[in-house]
Amino acid sequence: MNISGNTILITGAGTGMGLIAAKELAARGNRVIMVARDAERLQREADALRGAQAYACDITDVGQVEGLVDWVQENAPELNVLFLNAGVTHTYRLFDGTDAASNARLEMLVNFVSAVDLTHRFLPLLEGRPDPALIVTTSGVMYAPDTTNPTYSATKAALHSYVQSMRYRLKQVGSPLRLFELVSPLVDTPFASGVRSNEKAKPETVIADLLHGLEDDTFDIRPGSSQALYEAWRADPEKAVAMVNEATGA
């Protein structure tokens, strides 16, 4: 994949990995459309970048998503890359009195249902463009759950399964779209502020690995500890679970 000269829409672009990705991709001559909920912060970040635009949107709100799609069709019809990076998590332990069902509903809506919605809305537009690509951020906890973020882990497993279904179907119908999965390790961002661990990766390192993977057409990109976790999971799933939970102090 050519990582310059694209028009790229990034969800979750206001902070963390999404923001770092927006900065790096804008610096490489891409037009970047930054999407997140906090309009003021998003605009401030976009204003600091050349070739970046902000579009405030709650991706769980159907009406707002429809507005986003309409805006893209009118203002950025050349869009050829969609990077689904938005996510939410709750750090807690099962059976400790936390309302796990409420946590799961929000996490599933943001982390999984919105991805299904956005892919179905944008793929017809992407497939009509040169070099179309879809990038989806999952997590190493899809292999082995972090029991301090239990329902989040389940949503990432669901999203990984959906990515596999999409890949199979895209190949089946002869789609030109390339589908990349960024299997994120635990990253030192505001997103993971509630997780106690000395093994958090720098977001800049993860995005650097992502860009290298995109350039090399590596469709499963596993930066840092995600690769180690993947190998541990293949060798011994129970040890992989222990590996994750030792890292988070579960």
Task: Walk me through the topology.
Blueprint: E1 7-11, H1 16-27, E2 31-36, H2 39-47, E3 52-56, H3 62-75, E4 81-84, H4 100-126, E5 133-139, H5 150-172, E6 178-184, H6 203-215, E7 220-221, H7 225-235, H8 237-247
Parallel strand pairs: 1-2, 1-4, 2-3, 4-5, 5-6, 6-7
Helix pairs in contact: 1-6, 4-5, 7-8
Descriptive report:
The protein has a single domain, classed as NAD(P)-binding Rossmann-like Domain (Rossmann fold, 3-Layer(aba) Sandwich). The longest helix has 27 residues. The chain has a seven-stranded parallel beta sheet with strand order 3-2-1-4-5-6-7, sandwiched between helices. It contains eight helices and seven strands; from the N terminus they run βαβαβαβαβαβαβαα. Helix 1 packs across helix 6. The chain is of the alpha/beta class. This is Oxidoreductase DltE. Pfam families: adh_short. Belongs to the short-chain dehydrogenases/reductases (SDR) family.
- What's the architecture, going by CATH? 3-Layer(aba) Sandwich
In CATH, the topology is named Rossmann fold
Gyration radius from CA atoms, angstroms: 17 Å
Number of strands: 7
Family: Belongs to the short-chain dehydrogenases/reductases (SDR) family.
Domain Ketoreductase: 6-186
Protein name: Oxidoreductase DltE
Keywords: Oxidoreductase
